[in-house]
C-alpha cells in the first residue's frame, strides 16, 4: 500500500497549482516544494597517473529471477545437455519457494514458468520414486495447484499439464496412504482448484465430468459452487450445446437453474465475450420458480446493448427497471447511461438527475447522484471516443459538488491516451497519486501511457522515467509491450547499461511469445543499416546473453549482418557462438558453415577462414558435402591460396555426391591464382568432355578466364571464336567481360579491348552499356587485386546444383 501521507500532500499540491500546463509533469507549486538539488561542486583536478581517477565501470543489475525459478531453469539446461542435475532436495526446495512466492504476492504463473515447474516435478517423480514424497509434501503440492488458478488471460497448455501432474500425484498418495493421514484432508481441497484450472485451460468438459463424478461424495456441500467455473469454461470454449447438457445434468441432481446461475452465464456472454446473440439466448431463458434476472444481470446486458446499439431489444429491459421504481443509485446510473446512449444531452441528463432527487424526496428516500454516476457516463463517452463529452461530464460532477475519485482519473487517463493527449494523461496520473487505487487498477493504464510516451518522440525522457520508477517502487508488473517500448527507447539513446538492467529485471518472467516480441526490437536495431557497427555489436551481445533461445536462422541473419558491415571478425564470433550452443537445434549445420565461408570469401579474411576451417575439422556433427567443399574452395581462392582450394576439388571429385556445376566453375577460377594453373584447368576440361557433361556459359567463361589470367591471349581468342562450335553459345558480354577482367596489366587489357571492339563490335558496345559483368575487385588503395569469382558465385543457393552426367 502506498503512503497515505504522500497521497495527501500530492493532492494538496495539485489542488493549489499556480497554472495549468498539460505538458508539465507536476504543477509549478509542486516544483517549488521539491527538494533542491545539491550545488554543483567544481571538479577536482586529481592525478590521472596510472588511471587512479578513472570512473569505475557500472555493474549491471543481476537477473531478476523469482525465488526458485533459476534452479528450475538450470535443471532444464542440464537435462538438454545430458549433464548431472542439481540435487533433488535443492530442486524440491526451489519448486516450493517459487509457488510460495507466487501465492504470497498473488502473482500469475507465466507460461514458461509453468513449463519449467512441470519439468522439475516430473524429474523428481522419475528419479526419486523410492524417496518418500520425493522431497515434496502433499500440502506443498496442494499449495502449488491452488496457485495455478490465479492465472489470468489466455489458457496455457503448460498450466494444464502441470495441474494434471499435481492432481494425479495427490490422488496417488491419497489412494496409497497407509496411515490414513492423506484421507483425513478433505478431497475438495485439491479437487476444486483442479476443476478451476481445467475449466480455464480448455478442458471444461473434463472438469464437468469430475464435478459430476464427485458431486454427491465431496462437492455437494462445497462453500463455492463447482458448476460456476464449468459454465465459464464451456462459455469460453463456445460450447452452447454442452451448456444445455450441463443444465440437464444439474436437474438430475435437483440443482435448480437459479437466477445466480443465470447471472453467471449471461454476464459472461455480455461482459467478457460481448456476444449479443448468446446474451439474448441466455437472458431470455426461464429461471426456476419464476424468478426475475438480478439487477447485476440487467446492468451488464444493458451495457452490452449500449455498446452494440441494440436499443430496440434493450428497451424492454429498461422499461422493466423503470416500472420497478428503482430505489438504488446503481440502477439509476444505468438509466442515465441508457438515456445518454440514446442521444440525451448532458443538460438533459442533469435534468434526469434532478427528477431522481425529487422522486426520492417524495418517497422519503435519499437519492443523490454520486461520483459513480458521473464515472459511468464518462466511461460511456470513452467507448464512443468522445473526450469532449467526457470532460463535460466531469464538469457536471463539479456542479453537483462531487469530487473526482481514483476511477475518474483512470477514465481520464484512458480517453486522453486514446486521443493522443499524453500531457493531459500525465496530469490525470499525477492527480491519481492522491487517491487509493483498489487492486492496482491503474497498472494497465500506466503501462499503456509509458508505451504511448515512448512512441511520441516529442515527450521528454524524464516523464517516462518518472513513470518507470513509480512502477518499480511499487514492484508492479511491466507488460511485455512496455518492456519492448523501453528497450527501443534505450537503444535509440545508446543507454546499453539501462537496457541490460531493464531486461535482467523483467524479460525472464515472460513466456516464449512475449520474449520474442522484445527480442525483435533488439534484432531490428542490430540489423538497421543506420545503427553503427559498435552499437550493433553491443546490441547483439545483449541479445545473445538474454535471449538464449534465439533460433539458428536468426543467428545466421545476424552473422550476415556483420559480414555486410565489412566486419568478418565479428561475423566469425557470431558463428563461434553458434558452435558453442549446447542445444543441437541451435548449432550450425553444413549449410551454416557454407554461408559463413561465403561471407569470409567476400571479406578475403584468411584469419577467420583458418578459424572456421579448424571448427569444421573438430565438429563431429558435420559431414562435409559438395556444398561445403564448394564454399571452402571459394574462400581459399578468394584469400589467395588457390592451390589449397584445389585440394578440396579433389575431395569433391572422389566423394559419393560428386561435383556440382558451381564446383567446376569455382575450381576453374582457382586455377587463375597460381603458376601452371592452365594445365590443371585443361585436365578439368578434359574430364568434362570425357564424361560428356553439359558446359554452361559460366563454366566456359571461367575456362577462358584461366588462360586470360596467364596472358595466353591467342588461346583465349581461339576459345572465344570456337565457342559456338564447342559448346553452342555465341560470344556474349559475359565471355568478353571475363576475358578483359581476367587479363592482368593495363597493357594486356588494352589489347583485349582493341581486339573485342573489332571482332565483336555489337557485343562490345553492349558490354560497355550494361557493364554488369565487371568482376574485378580493388583493394583499399584502389589497386587491382588478383581476379576473383563474380558476385553470383557467392550466392550459396547455387552451390548445390548437381551435375548431370
Automatic annotation (TrEMBL):
PPR repeat residue intervals: 625-659
Transmembrane segments: none
Entry protein name: Uncharacterized protein
InterPro entries assigned to the protein according to its UniProt record, in alphabetical order: PPR-containing_protein, PPR_rpt, TPR-like_helical_dom_sf
PANTHER family in UniProt: MEMBRANE-ASSOCIATED SALT-INDUCIBLE PROTEIN-LIKE, OS04G0684500 PROTEIN
Amino acid at each position: 500500500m502506498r503512503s497515505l501521507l504522500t497521497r495527501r500532500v500530492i493532492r494538496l499540491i495539485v489542488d493549489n497549482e499556480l497554472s495549468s500546463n498539460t505538458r508539465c509533469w507536476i504543477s509549478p507549486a509542486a516544483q517549488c516544494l521539491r527538494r533542491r538539488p545539491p550545488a554543483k561542486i567544481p571538479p577536482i583536478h586529481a592525478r590521472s597517473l596510472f588511471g587512479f581517477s578513472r570512473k569505475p565501470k557500472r555493474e549491471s543489475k543481476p537477473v531478476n529471477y523469482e525465488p526458485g525459478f533459476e534452479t528450475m531453469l538450470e535443471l532444464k539446461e542440464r537435462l538438454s545437455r545430458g549433464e548431472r542435475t542439481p540435487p533433488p532436495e535443492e530442486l524440491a526446495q526451489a519448486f516450493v519457494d517459487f509457488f510460495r512466492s507466487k501465492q504470497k504476492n498473488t502473482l500469475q504463473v507465466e507460461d514458461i514458468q509453468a513449463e519449467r515447474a512441470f519439468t522439475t516435478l516430473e524429474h523428481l517423480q522419475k528419479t526419486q520414486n523410492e524417496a518418500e514424497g520425493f522431497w515434496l509434501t502433499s500440502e506443498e503440492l496442494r499449495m502449488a495447484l491452488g496457485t495455478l488458478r490465479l492465472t489470468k488471460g489466455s489458457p496455457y497448455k503448460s498450466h494444464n499439464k502441470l495441474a494434471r501432474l499435481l492432481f494425479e500425484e495427490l490422488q496417488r498418495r491419497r489412494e496409497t496412504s497407509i496411515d490414513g493421514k492423506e484421507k483425513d484432508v478433505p478431497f475438495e481441497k485439491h479437487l476444486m482448484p483442479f476443476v478451476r484450472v481445467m475449466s480455464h485451460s480448455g478442458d471444461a468438459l473434463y472438469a464437468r465430468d469430475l464435478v459430476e463424478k464427485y458431486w454427491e461424495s465431496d462437492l455437494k456441500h462445497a462453500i463455492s459452487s463447482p458448476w460456476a467455473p464449468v459454465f465459464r469454461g464451456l462459455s469460453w470454449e463456445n460450447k452452447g450445446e454442452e451448456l444445455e447438457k450441463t443444465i440437464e445434468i444439474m436437474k438430475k441432481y435437483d440443482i435448480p437453474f437459479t437466477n445466480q446461475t443465470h447471472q453467471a452465464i449471461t454476464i459472461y456472454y455480455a461482459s467478457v465475450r460481448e456476444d449479443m446473440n448468446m446474451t439474448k439466448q441466455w437472458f431470455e431463458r426461464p429461471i426456476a420458480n419464476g424468478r426475475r434476472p438480478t439487477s447485476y444481470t440487467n446492468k451488464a446486458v444493458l451495457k452490452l446493448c449500449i455498446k452494440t446499439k441494440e436499443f430496440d431489444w434493450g428497451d424492454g429491459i429498461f422499461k422493466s427497471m423503470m416500472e420497478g421504481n428503482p430505489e438504488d443509485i446503481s440502477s439509476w446510473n444505468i438509466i442515465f447511461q441508457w438515456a445518454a446512449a440514446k442521444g440525451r444531452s448532458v443538460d438533459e441528463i442533469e435534468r434526469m438527475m434532478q427528477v431522481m432527487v425529487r422522486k426520492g424526496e417524495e418517497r422519503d428516500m435519499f437519492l443523490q447522484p454520486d461520483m459513480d454516476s458521473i464515472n459511468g457516463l464518462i466511461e460511456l463517452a470513452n467507448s464512443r471516443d468522445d473526450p469532449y463529452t467526457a470532460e463535460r461530464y466531469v464538469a457536471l460532477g463539479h456542479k453537483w459538488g462531487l469530487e473526482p475519485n481514483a476511477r475518474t482519473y483512470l477514465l481520464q487517463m484512458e480517453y486522453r491516451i486514446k486521443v493522443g493527449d499524453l500531457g493531459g494523461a500525465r496530469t490525470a496520473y499525477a492527480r491519481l497519486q492522491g487517491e487509493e487505487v483498489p487492486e492496482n487498477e491503474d497498472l494497465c493504464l500506466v503501462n499503456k501511457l509509458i508505451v504511448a510516451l515512448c512512441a511520441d518522440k516529442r515527450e521528454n525522457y524524464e516523464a517516462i522515467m518518472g513513470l518507470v520508477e513509480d512502477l518499480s517502487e511499487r514492484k508492479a508488473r511491466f507488460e511485455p509491450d512496455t518492456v519492448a517500448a523501453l528497450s527501443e527507447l534505450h537503444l535509440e539513446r545508446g543507454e546499453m547499461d539501462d537496457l541490460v538492467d531493464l531486461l535482467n529485471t523483467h524479460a525472464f518472467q515472460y513466456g516464449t511469445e512475449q520474449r520474442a516480441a522484445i527480442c525483435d526490437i533488439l534484432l531490428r536495431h542490430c540489423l538497421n543499416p543506420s545503427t553503427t557497427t559498435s552499437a550493433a555489436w553491443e546490441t547483439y551481445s545483449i541479445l545473445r546473453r538474454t535471449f538464449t533461445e534465439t533460433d539458428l536462422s536468426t543467428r545466421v541473419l545476424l552473422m550476415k549482418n556483420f559480414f555486410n558491415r565489412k566486419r568478418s571478425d565479428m561475423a566469425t564470433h557470431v558463428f563461434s557462438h553458434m558452435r558453442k550452443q549446447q542445444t543441437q537445434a541451435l548449432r550450425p549445420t553444413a549449410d551454416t558453415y557454407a554461408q559463413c565461408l561465403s561471407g569470409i570469401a567476400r571479406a578475403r579474411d584468411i584469419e577467420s577462414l583458418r578459424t572456421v576451417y579448424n571448427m569444421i575439422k573438430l565438429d563431429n556433427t558435420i559431414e562435409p558435402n559438395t556444398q561445403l567443399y564448394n564454399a571452402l574452395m571459394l574462400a581459399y581462392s578468394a584469400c589467395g591460396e588457390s592451390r589449397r582450394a584445389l585440394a578440396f576439388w579433389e575431395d569433391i571429385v572422389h566423394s559419393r555426391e560428386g561435383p556440382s556445376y558451381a564446383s567446376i566453375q569455382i575450381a576453374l577460377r582457382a586455377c587463375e591464382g597460381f603458376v601452371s594453373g592452365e594445365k590443371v584447368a585443361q585436365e578439368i576440361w578434359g574430364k568434362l568432355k570425357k564424361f560428356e557433361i553439359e558446359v554452361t556459359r559460366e563454366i566456359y567463361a571461367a575456362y577462358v578466364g584461366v588462360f586470360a589470367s596467364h596472358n595466353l591471349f591467342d588461346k583465349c581468342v581461339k576459345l572465344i571464336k570456337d565457342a559456338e562450335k564447342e559448346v553452342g553459345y555465341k560470344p556474349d558480354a559475359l565471355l568478353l567481360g571475363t576475358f578483359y577482367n581476367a587479363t592482368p596489366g593495363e597493357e594486356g587489357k588494352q589489347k583485349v579491348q582493341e581486339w573485342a571492339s573489332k571482332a565483336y563490335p555489337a557485343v562490345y558496345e553492349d558490354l560497355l552499356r550494361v557493364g554488369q559483368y565487371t568482376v574485378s575487385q580493388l583493394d583499399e588503395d584502389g589497386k587491382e587485386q588478383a581476379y576473383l569469382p563474380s558476385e553470383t558465385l557467392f550466392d550459396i543457393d547455387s552451390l548445390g546444383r548437381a551435375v548431370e552426367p
